Amino acid sequence: MNKFLIKGKIISVRRLNDGRGFVTIFSKNGVNIYPQVFCSLEILEKIENLPYRAHVCIEGYVNSRKINGKRVQQFVATAVDKDVTYTEEVFGVKGKFFKPSETYVYLSGEIVKMFDNDKYLNLVVKTRTEDGINSSILTSLKKPDRMPNIEIGNSINLVCSVSTPIKKDEVNGTEQHFEDIVVLDFAMN
Question: What's the predicted TM-score (pTM) here?
C-alpha cells in the first residue's frame, strides 16, 4: 500500500510547460506544513476551477525517483475533492468552519534499507500502489525508549505524518523545501 490524504487550503498553483503542475497546500499536523503535490492536467484543471484558497481533500501516492543523481520523493495526486464544512457534512448546508486539516501517509511493504542517527531510525520501505507502481519510500521513525526488533526484509505497515522543513543552502543562501515522512505508528507483519 502507498497512499496519502491531505486536507487543507490551496495556497499556490504552479503550472508546468506541459500543462501538468504543482499545488501547495496549507495543512496542519500539530504544526503548520506546506506539502507540494504534483498534479496531472485533469486534476490541475479541476483545482483551478475551485474558488481562490479553497479547502480541498487530495488523495494520491508517494513517488520516489532520481533527479540529477539525487533521490527525490514526490506526492502525486490521483483525486481531488472540495472539502465540506461541519454543517455541510451533516445538514447539507454550507457553514463557515471546516474540520481541522490533516495529512497522513499510509505505507505497507518490505524494509529494504535502514540507517540511523541520534534521534531517528530511517527506514526505506518498498511499496506498491493500487495501480501497480513500485516505489521505495524513505521514512523517519523517532527512536522509542524500547526499540522493537526491526530488520531489513521485514514486512511493515506504517501510518505517517508529514513535516515540511525549510533548509538553507550554506553556499548560495537559497532555501529548499522538503517533505519528510515521519512515522506516527507501525506494526510488523
Answer: 0.88
